[in-house]
Specification:
GO terms for molecular function: oxidoreductase activity. This protein is α/β, with parallel strands linked by helices. It folds into two domains: about 5-155, Quinone Oxidoreductase, Chain A, domain 1 (Alpha-Beta Complex), CATH 3.90.180.10; about 165-255, 3-Layer(aba) Sandwich (Rossmann fold). Helix content is about 25%, strand content about 20%. The chain has helices at about 40-45, 100-105, 155-160, 160-175, 190-200, 210-220, 235-245, and strands spanning about 5, 15-20, 30-35, 65-70, 85-90, 95, 115, 135-140, 145, 180-185, 205-210, 225-230, 250-255. Helix 4 (about 160-175) crosses helix 5. The structure holds zinc ion (ZN) (2 copies). One zinc ion binds near residues 102 and 112.
């Protein structure tokens, strides 16, 4: 029987529990977890800050694992037959309706009101729907991606859920060649956004954070300027950005501090 780390209720310690083996349906997949992650969403879950969470839950909405068994022939999003032993990841957002404004007009099915999210809005009693578990059960219809050989599971999880979040931000920011881009916050999302801004042709990328250690990582990834913000002088980084841009300021600013 698989072990899983369970959030039983908000503000309670996470408990390691033995849970029943998943029941494999036709089209379902049992995944042996290789890596999952802890992100800001999990902090929200732990404190009970999200609506409609059916505690107890198994957190972990972004994971990679080895396929143990499939319920008959199941294909990944590229139409490739998924074989036992394959290294695979999956989209945490499931059961979207393809019939609402979010799904059809906004093309943002991750906001669909019908959606269920692995590690967030499935109960631990509903199979093994989260990555903080030895096994993850992928229900029929979950979108699965087999990892290409050149991407190791460790490299994949290093990007984490921060990388697609940053990718979405960059997509919306529509950076033009030569733009000055300021990224506020240099956690996993901000760092990914800064690197993607460079890849998008930004002329200058300036990253702001209060932790020097994070700025060192940004610098080593090719960011042009880093600014360590000081709590006692919140305006000082604005002046510095103006200085670095001949008084023009940034063309694009990406907010990645996570502060509401
Ligand atoms: Zn929908
Ligand atoms: Zn996340």
């Amino acid at each position: 029987v698989p072990l899983a780390a369970v959030m039983t209720a908000p503000n309670q310690p996470v408990e390691v529990q033995q849970l029943p083996d998943p029941i494999l349906e036709k089209g379902g997949i049992i995944l042996e977890t290789l890596y999952s992650e802890v992100c800001g969403t999990d902090v929200h879950l732990l404190h009970g800050w999200l609506e409609g969470v059916p505690y107890p839950i198994i957190p972990g909405h972004f994971s990679v694992g080895r396929v143990v068994e499939t319920g008959g022939a199941v294909s990944d999003v590229n139409g490739k037959l998924i074989q036992p032993g394959a290294i695979a990841t999956f989209l945490d957002v499931h059961e979207t309706c393809y019939n609402c404004w979010y799904c059809l007009v906004a093309k943002a099915s991750t906001r669909c009101p019908q959606r269920k999210v692995y590690g967030v809005t499935y109960s631990a009693k509903d199979g093994l729907p989260g990555g903080w578990s030895e096994l993850i059960y992928l229900k029929p219809g979950v979108k699965v991606l087999t990892l290409p050989e050149e991407v190791s599971p460790k490299q994949f999880i290093a990007g984490g859920c921060a990388l697609p979040t940053a990718l979405h931000a960059i997509d919306r920011a529509q950076i033009q060649i030569g733009d000055v881009v300021v990224v506020q916050g240099c956690g996993p999302v901000g760092l990914s956004a800064a690197i993607l801004a460079l890849l998008s042709g930004a002329g200058k990328v300036i990253v702001i954070d209060k932790f020097e250690s994070r700025l060192v990582v940004a610098k080593s990834n090719g960011v042009d300027e880093t600014l360590a913000i000081k709590a006692d002088d919140p305006r000082q980084h604005i002046e510095r950005v103006l200085e670095l841009t001949n008084g023009h300021g940034a063309d694009v600013t990406i907010e990645a501090t996570g502060i509401d």
